Amino acid sequence: MTASYPTPTETVEAEIEIKKSRFIARAAKVTERAAALAFVEQAKRDFPDARHHCWAYLLGDPDSAASAAMNDAGEPSGTAGKPILNVIQHKGVGDVVVVVIRYFGGIKLGAGGLVRAYSGAAQAAMSILPLAQARPVEAVELSLDFAKEQLLRHWAEQHEAELLQVDYGEQVQLRLSVPQDALDELGVFCAAQGVTRRS
Q: Could you tell me which residue ranges the Impact N-terminal domain spans (predicted)?
């Protein structure tokens, strides 16, 4: 069993200014790559005139991350994404994405200055980020009859499973994020109710 680890409970935003450049950092909880990238895209829509939208994310247990990625988004290599990821790793937080939006103030900071600025912005957001202990989860895809959907939704609520996606066709296709310690119980429920697990 994987140990629990701290994850964000809400989205925060912090801003610092260095030599007239504004650095706006946003941090939020994400449990999959697609959600992290969607969060970055939202930041680009919210700040379309910013020069850079640099980011990093870490999924899963920070001591043995399932996935981590970073992007310098046009800044010199290693001066933005890596410092942001380093702050996340140092804080020991999992299932988190941090985007730092930069408005250039006309004064070049140099590579060392950029590293300090992006680290500082990420640190500012991470320091105000509310955290809670997360139970390790697994994404599960299920197929079931319409008549069983309410039963499954009730089961999910009782076991702190999160509904990620629902598609209606000949059957209901559900995607759930299920705490790993509830997977055996989900198996029992599926067998009893004739629900098919697709993953």
A: 19-125
Note whether 65 and 124 are same-domain residues.
yes
End-of-domain residue from the set 133, 148, 177 = 133
Domain residue limits at 162: 136-197
Residues 150-170: tens digit of each pLDDT: 999 999 989 888 888 899 999
What's the angle, vertex CA 128, arms to CA 67 and CA 23, rounded to 5? 80
Query: Cα(88)–Cα(125) distance, rounded to whole angstroms?
Result: 10
Residues 48 and 120 in one domain: yes
- Give per-residue pLDDT as tens, 49-64: 999 999 999 998 898 8
Q: Which residues contact 91 (CB under 8 A, 6 or more apart)?
A: 62, 126
92 and 6 Cβ atoms separated by less than 8 Å: yes
Q: Is the dihedral of CA 149, 151, 154, 156 positive or negative?
A: negative
